[in-house]
Structure formats: C-alpha cells, structure tokens
Amino acid sequence: LNAAMAECRGTVFRNRMVNVALSNHKLFHRACGIVAAITSSTTQMATESVLRAIYDVHTLAQLSELLPLDATKHIEVIADQNVEGVVPVALVLHNSQDRDMTVQQARELLAQHSSIRNAIQACCAK
C-alpha cells in the first residue's frame, strides 16, 4: 500500500525513489544512474537528460559546455535556482518521442498527470 501511494505521488517509479533532491555529488551521480537504469541507456545519455532538466537547455552545443563541469557546479545551480523534480523531468525528456520537447513541456506534462508513469506514457504516445 505504501509503495502504491508513493508511486501515485510521483516519488517512486519502477521501484526506485526518483524524487531525489540533488544536494551533493553522491546524489547527483545517483540521479544519473537512476535515469540510466530506468531508461536502459548509457550513463552519458542519462547525464545529458539530467543536465537538460537542470539547465533547461536543448542543443548539443549547450550540453557540450556543461558535460565537463564538476557536479559541484550543477549542485550550486540547483540550489541557487531552486530547481526541483530533476529526475522525473529527465525521465520524461529521455523517453519522449518528441526530441524537441522542452523542459517546460516536460514539467507541464508531469503536472497534468497523476504519476510519472502516466506522463511518460502520454509523451511516448505523441
């Protein structure tokens, strides 16, 4: 019952806690690992999705500037800009059939649906 309630609230997806506050190196790398594991993708691709969710960037040029930065910089941005829901947004972005989906669109999709699973199904159906 508790697991079902957590999934409905959007904190758990496929038996993984996805509503992780990225407040240190370990949690940043855990978030990238969660996205990689759930999406069956490489750590590199998952990290790109996480960075898109943090910085609201889309182009490869923008991402290539962010990838070499240390996790400390990303954590500072998250704290300074009060970025929330990084992993759920990264999951929607990564699973979207629409490669032009923006972070704002992913956030709106998550807000419209009762669970991450429903949001991902909706973005995959488009």
- Strand proportion, as a percent range, falls in under 5%
- Spans of at least 5 consecutive residues whose pLDDT stays below 50 are none
Query: From the helix content, strand content and strand pairing, which structural class follows?
Result: mainly alpha
Q: What order do the helices and strands follow?
A: HEEHHHHHHH
Task: Please state the CA-atom Rg, rounded to the nearest Å.
Answer: 14 Å
What composes the largest sheet? Answer: 2 strands, antiparallel
**Helical percentage:** 55-70%
Number of strands: 2
- Mean pLDDT over the full residue set: 87
Outline:
The protein is mostly helical. 67% of the residues lie in helices and 3% in strands. The chain has 8 helices and 2 strands; from the N terminus they run αββααααααα.
